[in-house]
Amino acid sequence: MDVLQTLRGGLVVSCQPVDDGPMDRPDIVAAMAAAAVAGGAAGLRIEGVENLAAARAAVRVPIIAILKRDLPDSPVRITPFADDVRALAAAGADIVAYDATDRIRPEPAADLVAAIRASGRLAMADCAMLDDGRRALVDGASILGTTLSGYTEATAGRSDGVDLALIGAFRDLGAFVMAEGRVNTPDLAAQTIAAGADAVTVGTALTRLEIMTDWFQKAVVDGVRRRE
Ligand SMILES: CC(=O)N[C@H](C=O)[C@@H](O)[C@H](O)[C@H](O)COP(=O)(O)O
């Protein structure tokens, strides 16, 4: 079955531990990946070449790979260089995702898509808004993700909840739509699919134990306060 067909109607689990936390190790990422697949994940999203190689050896489902960099002169973090694309393709990515926003960046987004396609992989555009998706389709991306909605200056106001409107707008473009970003409950995952997403990616709520623990810990404190 082709990769998009495998992902359609499925859950993608993003296995990205908290940076430099106790779970930020390739063997642990590989274990998370295997556990996600055991739970029914149709695909995975993995950051970094070493993590990707470890996860690739552990599972057979499609992997969306990224490489995050903190650049001194650009806000673009997700797979900013064509060399990153080639490294991820060589380490076993099926799909390579890149920042598709229209911001200051070291290499044009179109060049990244060209590099992804030249390596025989599919391109996923991590978008913040509708125009990002429009440009990405012209460039040759196969998947439009809502990943960056709420995380750019222009979309900072949307950082609460899931961007269901953007899912619908991408759907209207005729694209394969990946809902991603703050899908923190099973009910929200269902809402994204009902709104027109072809697949949905969940990260923090499944694989960032420190953050999930903090959510619950705060809820417990709130419960104590309510009892008083
Ligand atoms: C904005 C950005 O850099 N997003 C990243 C992209 O890979 C990850 O940090 C997110 O965890 C991922 O998109 C999944 O989203 P959530 O963790 O909200 O389920």
Feature tags:
Putative N-acetylmannosamine-6-phosphate 2-epimerase; 228 residues; N-acylmannosamine kinase activity; alpha/beta; TIM Barrel; single chain; binds N-acetylmannosamine-6-phosphate; eight-stranded parallel barrel; 10 helices; RibuloseP-bd_barrel
Overview of this protein structure:
With 228 residues, the chain is an alpha/beta fold. The protein has a single domain, classed as Aldolase class I (TIM Barrel), CATH 3.20.20. It is 43% helix and 16% strand. It has an 8-stranded parallel barrel, surrounded by 7 helices. Helix 2 crosses helix 3 (49-58). The longest helix has 19 residues, at 209-227. Residues 14, 16, 66, 147-148, 151, 180-183, 201-205 line the site of N-acetylmannosamine-6-phosphate. In the N-terminal section; belongs to the NanE family. In the C-terminal section; belongs to the ROK (NagC/XylR) family. NanK subfamily. Keywords: Carbohydrate metabolism, Isomerase. It comes from Jannaschia rubra.
Q: Could you name the CATH homologous superfamily? A: Aldolase class I
Domain count, please report it: 1
User: What's the end-to-end separation, in Å?
Assistant: 57 Å
Query: Measured on Cα atoms, how large is the radius of gyration?
Result: 17 Å
The global form is: globular
Average predicted confidence as pLDDT: 97
Strand content: 15-25%
If helices are DSSP runs of H or I spanning 4 or more residues, what is the number of helices?
A: 10
Strand order, sheet with most strands: 1-2-3-4-5-6-7-8
What portion of residues is helical?
40-55%
Q: What can be said about the biggest beta sheet?
A: 8 strands, parallel, barrel
What CATH calls the topology is TIM Barrel
**Annotation, overall tally of beta strands:** 8
EC number: 5.1.3.9
GO molecular function: N-acylglucosamine-6-phosphate 2-epimerase activity; N-acylmannosamine kinase activity
Keywords: Carbohydrate metabolism, Isomerase
Family: In the N-terminal section; belongs to the NanE family.
